[in-house]
């Protein structure tokens, strides 16, 4: 059942991409759930820390839940990205519980850990005269 869950999440994550399709076949034919975990982890852009957390998880159920959680986060990010395409220059990355933002176009404050959006401040209307 967990394998099915994992594959479902993976399918949702992977979409129609050709690599994803090939990957899907491999995952579906693979009998060993641990191997499935490894395969999916290898393909998904989780951070290294996340991957290590999954692969070092002794309890298979926990590991699978972890991957599903990560996949769902990725799916959400994908959806949000789809909605905001072009609207936001900030890419959120989930790194083991700490949210960091990668500001691709450093138009705003250089090297600040803050997401760009917070710097796009408008004056309050009363300042405009």
Chain-wise SSE layout:
Blueprint: H1 2-14, H2 18-29, H3 33-43, H4 48-56, H5 60-84, E1 90-95, E2 98-103
Antiparallel strand pairs: 1-2
Description:
- With 129 residues, this protein is mainly α.
- The protein has two domains: 2-87, Methane Monooxygenase Hydroxylase, Chain G, domain 1 (Up-down Bundle), CATH 1.20.58; 89-129, no CATH class.
- Helix content is 54%, strand content 9%.
- It contains five helices and two strands.
- It has helices at residues 2-14, 18-29, 33-43, 48-56, 60-84; strands at residues 90-95, 98-103.
- It has a two-stranded antiparallel sheet.
- Helix 1 (2-14) packs antiparallel against helix 2 and helix 1 (2-14) runs parallel beside helix 5 (60-84).
- The longest helix is centred in the middle third of the chain and has 25 residues, at 60-84.
- The model is unreliable at 88-111 (pLDDT under 50).
Q: What fraction strand?
A: 5-15%
Radius of gyration from CA coordinates: 19 Å
CATH level-1 class of the largest domain = Mainly Alpha
Report the total helices: 5
The pLDDT mean sits at 63
Could you tell me how far the N terminus lies from the C terminus, measured between alpha carbons in angstroms? Answer: 64 Å
Derived from helix and strand composition plus strand pairing, the structural class reads mainly alpha
Strand order of the largest sheet: 1-2
Count of all domains: 2
């Amino acid at each position: 059942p967990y394998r099915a869950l994992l594959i479902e999440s993976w399918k949702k994550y992977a979409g129609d991409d050709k690599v994803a399709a090939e990957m899907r076949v491999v995952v579906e034919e693979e009998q060993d759930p641990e191997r499935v975990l490894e395969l999916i982890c290898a393909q998904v852009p989780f951070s290294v820390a996340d991957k290590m957390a999954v692969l070092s998880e002794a309890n298979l159920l926990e590991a699978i839940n972890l991957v599903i959680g990560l996949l769902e986060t990725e799916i959400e990010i994908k959806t949000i990205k789809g909605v905001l395409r072009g609207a936001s220059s900030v890419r959120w990355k989930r790194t083991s519980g700490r949210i960091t933002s990668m500001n691709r176009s450093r138009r705003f404050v250089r090297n600040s850990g803050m997401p760009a959006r917070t710097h796009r401040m408008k004056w309050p209307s009363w300042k405009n005269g």
